[in-house]
């Protein structure tokens, strides 16, 4: 077992763990929309899993979608669902595991950057989180994820409330803000 790994455990009726499996710790994708007429899923950000274009055409593909602890249809995916994508698992062409939406919220307070503009950690509501290597920032309330979470992208949101998503390694992968304007960088810690 990896010390910082993320694992899924299966527990029998006696409360004993009978199986474990390592789970990936990469950055998931963010759903834009699913068009049932074309069977095409588009993404605002494709994450680490899917390296193709910003959409997947599911025509003639076997797809398994897990959302909210149950198996659902592709049409049950909605905008800003955060999805881990796996190909060739469980006998399906695609396995999509929905981890939820970007709903955690808190006050952005500070960051640590050994080599700016890339960030090592950020502090939200008094808690320090590592920043995922593949990350995205939305500055327009979740419409687009065009910026990276870095010292340049966060300059305007000090002391402001943000929404964020932690990947399975407990790293900040996504931040949503709708703040425009000039920030106060007096809380920045340079170096680690």
Q: How large is the radius of gyration?
A: 18 Å
Sketch the topology as an H/E string, one letter per element.
EEEEEEEEEEEEEEE
The residue fraction in helices comes out at under 10%
Mean pLDDT, all residues: 83
- Please state the oligomeric state of the protein chains shown: single chain
The class by helix and strand makeup works out as mainly beta
Please tally the helical runs, counting DSSP H or I stretches of 4 or more residues.
0
Give the overall silhouette. globular
Low-confidence stretches: 181-192
Question: Total number of β-strand segments?
Answer: 15
Report the span from N to C terminus. 28 Å
Percent of residues in beta strands? over 45%
Widest β-sheet, arrangement of strands: 5-4-3-8-9-6-7
Please outline the major beta sheet.
7 strands, mixed
Explain how this protein is built.
This protein is an all-beta fold. 0% of the residues lie in helices and 47% in strands. It contains no helices and 15 strands. It has strands at 6-11, 17-23, 29-35, 40-45, 55-57, 63-67, 70-72, 81-87, 94-101, 104-113, 121-124, 127-138, 161-166, 172-176, 189-190. Strands 5-4-3-8-9-6-7 form a 7-stranded mixed sheet, with no helix packed on it. The protein has a 5-stranded mixed beta barrel with strand order 10-11-12-14-13. Residues 181-192 have low confidence and may be disordered.
């Amino acid at each position: 077992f990896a010390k910082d790994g993320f694992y899924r455990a299966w527990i029998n009726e006696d409360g004993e763990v009978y199986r474990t499996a390592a789970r990936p710790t990469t950055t998931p994708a963010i759903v834009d929309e699913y068009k049932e007429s074309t069977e095409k899923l588009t993404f605002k950000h494709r994450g680490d899993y899917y390296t193709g274009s910003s959409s997947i055409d599911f025509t003639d593909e076997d797809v398994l979608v897990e959302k909210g602890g149950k198996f659902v249809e592709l049409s049950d995916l909605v905008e800003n669902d955060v999805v881990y994508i796996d190909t060739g698992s469980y006998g399906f062409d695609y396995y999509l595991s929905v981890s939820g939406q970007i709903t955690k919220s808190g006050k952005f307070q500070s960051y640590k950057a050994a080599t700016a503009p890339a960030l090592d950690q950020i502090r939200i509501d008094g808690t320090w989180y590592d920043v995922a290597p593949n990350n995205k920032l939305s500055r327009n309330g979740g419409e687009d994820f065009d910026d990276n979470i870095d010292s340049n992208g966060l300059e305007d949101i000090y002391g402001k409330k943000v929404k964020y998503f932690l990947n399975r390694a407990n790293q900040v992968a996504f931040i949503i803000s709708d703040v425009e304007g000039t920030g106060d960088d007096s809380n920045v810690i340079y170096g680690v």
